[in-house]
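Weekly sync notes, structure subgroup
Attendees: PM, AL, DS (notes)

Item 1: joint prediction request from the bench team. They want all two components modeled as one assembly rather than separately. Inputs as received:
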Amino acid sequence: MAKKIKALKADVLKFLQGLEDAVKDVKTASAVGLAVRQRMLELISRGISPIEGRARFPEYKNVSLQRGRKQTNRQLRKLSRTQRNIAKQLRKSGTKGAVVKNYSASARALGKAARTKVKNGYPYNTKEYAAGSKRPRPVNLYLTGDFLRALALAVKTVANKAVVEIGWWDPKQAIKEKGHRDGAGGQPPRPTLPGRGERWAQVIQLDIMKVLREAVSKAAKSAKRG
Amino acid sequence: MAKGDPHHEIDVFKLTGVKVPKDKEEEALEACASLIKESVLSYTGAGQTSVQGGKWKRKLTPEYAKRKSEESTANFANLELNGDLLDAFDVRVQGRKIVMEVTGDQVEKAEGNLLGSYGRSPDDSKAREFMPHKRGQQLRKEIVSDLKELLEGYADGQED
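Output from the run, pasted for the record:
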């Protein structure tokens, strides 16, 4: 009886080891990396951050400025019209002199201010915008595609466990990721890789879990056959 | 909840049939809220409904397509012209439920899309149901399946 229990224990331990090896091996790590990369690119292409809690990427700085300026200009035009109308009413009523002049001057100044335009900046100042391949929406971190194409993964073995890294190793592209993280050029930050205290978006965490469960399931089936 | 009202509450535990230990409920609910928001935004961004059996008129009218081409590279309906509507879409935990809603000055726009009305009479054939809004409607089965898998992770006692 003791011998049977010992044999059973050995079998169970071997089975568990097989499962553990399945989630630690290079093939599984690569599968995790590929799944994460694919989902990252899918989310980013739709203007969604791959980091939990960040949801949509904020819009481009110059787009916000233009929208803000358009609204301000609308208000200024209204005020200008009001001032002009007051000046008109005063003249009709026979009022003359500085009072009327002040309202007219104010109307002219407001009208001039209402014609203020925001200088075009990114993305409006790119040849891709002129060509039609870049627009303010979606905010997808794509201009030429060099940055997103350079998103890579590396798998290595550390202390008998496979480790997968994902990111940008090309220095020309890595600096862009830093720019997105820091908010370079006055742009709002749009980080793409989780930093300290941050986690992958839930959909990515679920993708990772699915790959691991698949690996465990395959290992369990293989052990059963064996 | 009136038809077209961009406010929907979900009991994810009832929906998925998964029980989570009381001490993990709060964390599980927050994770579910994140998952729902990411999923709905993703499906919407792809021009697809997040509602099981929901409607989505993908094609744009020629006039709107022309206007949209100035602002966006997407030439299909993805509810993103200047982004205000999607930025106003929120998913949060309220007690033991999850609330999906659009609030503020985007409510009318949201209703227009959900009902296919856009300032006129509702027209199902023009609707873009980006979230459940009618009685009995539910999130699409892929999202529900993901929610179930997510919650099972908490029920199993898995930790990060």
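Discussion: The mean pLDDT of chain A is 91.
Action: AL to compare against the crosslinking data before next sync.
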